[in-house]
Every structure is written in C-alpha cells, then in structure tokens.
Design brief:
With 494 residues, the chain is an alpha+beta fold. It has helices at residues 9-34, 42-73, 80-101, 106-123, 125-140, 181-186, 216-228, 272-289, 308-326, 337-346, 400-404, 426-435, 439-459, 463-484; strands spanning 148-150, 156-162, 166-170, 176-180, 190-192, 202-211, 243-249, 257-266, 348-352, 357-359, 367-373, 375-382, 385-393, 396-398, 412-415, 419-425. It is elongated.
C-alpha cells in the first residue's frame, strides 16, 4: 500500500471530508422530509448537495483506485498532472449538472467566465506558459518520471514529478530543483543514459596520467585487463566493455606524460562518484602490480636526506618483513636462515583492491601468495553454482598447490578489502629444493595433511582412517612435487 502513504494522505483526508459531508447532506435531506418542509427549498437544496457530494466522493475514490493502485500494478505510473486534470474536468461537469438542478443559467456564467479568462490570460502569460508546457511534456512523453536529465547550466537530476507549473528534479546532493516547464521546452535538455530499445546506462570517464617511459600499448593492456576482469565492478555495465584509451599528450613542454582515460558505462546514475572511486582503486592496484607509477609534474622536486646508513636500514627492515612473511608459511619451517634470505630477495610485492579476484578457480599459476594485510573470501564453483568456502585474514597464505605441484587453482580467492601480498614463484623455490631435495618429503606430508583435513571433516573419518589417508596422500603428493620440480629421488642424496 505504498501508493497510499505518506504522500497521498491529503487525498485520503479529502475523500473522508467528502464522505462526511455527503452523510450530513443526506441526513439534512431526510430531516427536511421528516419535518414536511414541502414549501421550503431545504429539500431541493439538501438533495442537490447530496448529489454533488456523493459524486465527488465516488470520483475521488475512483481516481485513487485507478491512478494509484490499478495502473501502477500494471506498470503505468501516470504523473499527478493527469490525475488532477481528470479530477478538475469531473468537478466542472458535476458543478454544471448541480447548477442546472438549481435552475441556474450556465450559458451566461460560461460567457462571463470566458471574458474573465481572457483578462487573466493576458496578466498570467508566464504561468499559462508553464501550464501549457506541463501539458506538452505529458502529451509527447519526451521526459518521464525517473529520467535523469542535464540542464543547460550543467545541473543534473532525476525527474521526480511533472506538475502543472514546474517539474521537480532530485539531485545527487540530496537537493530538489524546481524547473519551470516553459524553461524545459525552450532549452536543450540532455536525457542521460537513454537510448531507444536499450537499458539505461551512461558513459563515464576516469582520467589518469603516466609518463613517457612506458609504452601506451602496455599501459592500455594492463588497465583493460584489470577493469574487465571478473568480478565486474558494481554498477558497471558488462556491455559495452569498459576500455582504456590514450586520450592526449601533455601540452606543456615542461611536462612529459601521456593522459589516459578509462571509459565505462554506468547502470545506476545515482552511484556515479562511488563507482568512479572503485574504478580508481582497481586502476591504482593494477598499476602498482605492473610497476607503472602515476606521472608527476616534471618540475616537481623531492628533497630527502639520504645516505648509505639510511638506505641500508630501509633494506634491512624490508628484508626482515619479507622473512617474517615467509615464516608464516608452515611448510617452509625447515628452511635455514640463509635459505629464508635467498627466498626473501625473490618475493614480489603485489596489491589488490577490494572486489578483485586474486586467484581464479582452474587457472594455472605457479606461485604462492603470502598475505600480509587484508581479508579474502574463498569461493568454489560446483556444477555451475558458486559457494563460499571460508574467509581468511592476514597473516596467511594460499595457492601452495600451484607452487608445489603445478595443479590448477582449486578455488577462487576474492579480496574483501584492500590486500597486500607477496608472490613466491616456482623458479625461486626450485633452487632451494634442488639443493635440499629431501625437504620435498616433509613438504609433501604437510600439504597432504592440509588436504586430508578437509576431507576428514566432510567424511567424518576416524583417527586410523585419517592417518592412513594422510600416508597415501603424502606418497602421491611427493610424486607430484618431484615430477613438477624435476627432482631425482631424494634418497639418492642421503
């Protein structure tokens, strides 16, 4: 019953007023008859008033039922101007009929009204222009309730209502614009995101700059891969696909950068700034992963105290952070300090923004993720249906099977906040295993235990069955690791 409240309470009160007035008129009519006032005009007066008020009540109830309940249910939301026009014409007809019942000459009234109307028309040209404009907007349906329009002064708003004198627009700033209907007819109005036969969506532009050290083709490819990757950013249309273009080159000679633009199609025009923000976050993360810095003015100078001691301190701190991250990986606990340092040098820092896929099920990628900041969700697709398996928070790691066996990703990992990770690549880990291949057996046991743990919960295995399953999985895992890394049997090294 949303159509009846709270904006239409005045109409309900009006119906109630007519109902009560009709009941009083009927009571007066019967009272006059009861008092036998045949010679009095009381009976005729109360009878005609009962007729008028009764039909006014019927017309009001009919308009509410038809215009506020039935038609909206059928998907036809007519503007209030149509309802008011129907009520106005109905009231005029009822008044004429009632006046005739009182033996009033309506033709003389009409002639007098015509003269008065002509005089008023001269003095109220602007108001009449707005009224005629409102009627014209309703007749040609060029602007409809719910449309987003842009005025000539650049203001944008959603059409909330088209009234007799003006049109009501609601802006994104939570403000209301009152635009005279005559202005809408006289000006060039842009209806945003509207195309015949197509869903509503409006093209948006997000600009950024990268200096000339980076090939535009590489920049465009990097950005498009990020913004087109699933999951699609909320309120971004999948078709046409979002794209990146090299928009322009810096025109000032002291600057040396290219200007790029991401173009995408917005499906909810109310969410323009929040969606642009999500696009920029994904853009920034993609450029960080590709080691493409944003451009700064060429004249910008950074002054910073620097010396060997400070550089060494920063490098030592970064190395300690990387080693601490590696120590979070359970199956690397057997590494020596030298091996930790060796692997730490090869780690690649990467950044993912909220909503991005870090891993995608069935993809092949021979590296491990060590997450140092953020939260992720793990999803699996089973027979076309997605199901969330778990949530993980830093510090943790995932993707170990891709690193150690080369198997495709078994799940999709999605960032639910901004995530910072290190990537540990197979090539870097291969040297450690070749130097100490016996370590492969310990790793295979740990990975097998992790794999069987989930199976044990699902199948409710007892301790004996669990241990037997781990032993079998360890042998199988060891075979895959030695094959993937090209190791000979570790026993040859003992």
């Amino acid at each position: 019953m949303r159509n009846l409240a709270p904006g239409n309470n005045s109409r309900i009160r009006r119906v109630a007023f007519f109902c009560l007035s009709y009941l009083f008129a009927v009571a007066g009519y019967h009272l006059a008859i009861g008092l036998e006032l045949e010679t009095s005009t009381a009976i005729d007066t109360t009878e005609n008033l009962s007729f008028l008020l009764g039909w006014l009540t019927i017309v009001e109830i009919f308009s509410i039922l038809v215009f506020k309940l039935v038609l909206p249910k059928l998907g036809h939301n007519l503007p209030s101007l149509v309802t008011e026009l129907f009520l106005g014409i109905s009231i005029i007809i009822l008044l004429i009929v009632t006046l005739k019942n009182f033996d009033v000459d309506t033709t003389s009234i009409a002639a007098t009204s015509a003269v008065i109307t002509a005089i008023l028309a001269i003095g109220l040209q602007a108001t009449l222009g707005n009224v005629i404009g409102g009627l014209a907007l309703q007749l040609d349906r060029s602007i409809r309730i719910g449309d987003w329009i842009q005025l000539e002064n650049g203001k944008q708003g959603r059409v909330q209502e088209i009234r007799w004198r003006h049109t009501v627009l609601e802006t994104r700033d939570w403000d209301t614009l009152i635009v005279p209907n005559s202005s809408l007819l006289a000006a060039n109005i842009m209806i945003l995101g509207k195309r015949e036969g197509e869903s509503r969506q409006h093209r948006m532009w997000v600009y950024f700059a990268v200096d000339f050290r980076f090939n535009p083709s590489f920049v465009i490819e990097t950005v498009e891969k990020a913004i087109q990757a699933p999951p699609i950013i909320p309120n971004m249309s999948p078709f046409p696909k979002p794209n990146c273009i090299c928009y322009d080159f810096a025109k000032e000679h002291h600057n040396s950068y290219a200007i790029y633009a991401i173009r995408y199609w917005l499906t909810d025009l109310l969410e323009d700034d929040p969606t642009n923000s999500l696009v920029r976050r994904r853009l920034y993360a993609a450029l960080q992963r590709a080691k493409i810095p944003m451009a700064i003015p060429a004249a910008q100078i950074f002054v910073e105290k620097d010396n060997n001691e400070r550089r060494e301190r920063k490098a030592r701190s970064e190395m300690e952070n990387r080693i601490d991250a590696l120590k979070q990986v359970e199956f690397l606990n057997a590494l020596t300090a030298k091996e930790y340092a060796q692997l730490a040098k090869s780690l690649q820092p990467v950044l993912y923004s909220k909503g991005e896929n870090i891993m995608v099920q069935n993809d092949k990628a021979h590296w491990l993720y060590i997450m140092t900041e953020g939260e992720v969700e793990v999803w699996v697709s089973v027979r076309g249906h997605k199901r969330k398996v778990t949530e993980m928070s830093a510090p943790t790691f995932y993707g170990e099977m891709g690193l150690m066996t080369g198997e495709p990703r078994s799940a999709t990992v999605v960032a639910v906040s901004d995530v910072k990770c290190y990537r540990l690549f197979r090539d870097a880990f291969q040297k450690v295993l070749h130097d100490r291949p016996a370590m492969a057996e310990e790793i295979s046991s740990i990975l097998a235990a992790r794999e069987v743990e989930t199976q044990s919960v699902k199948e409710q295995l007892d301790e004996e069955s669990h241990n037997e399953r781990v032993t079998q999985a360890s042998v199988h895992m060891l075979d895959k690791i030695t094959s993937f890394f090209g190791l000979t049997d570790y026993r040859d090294y003992e």
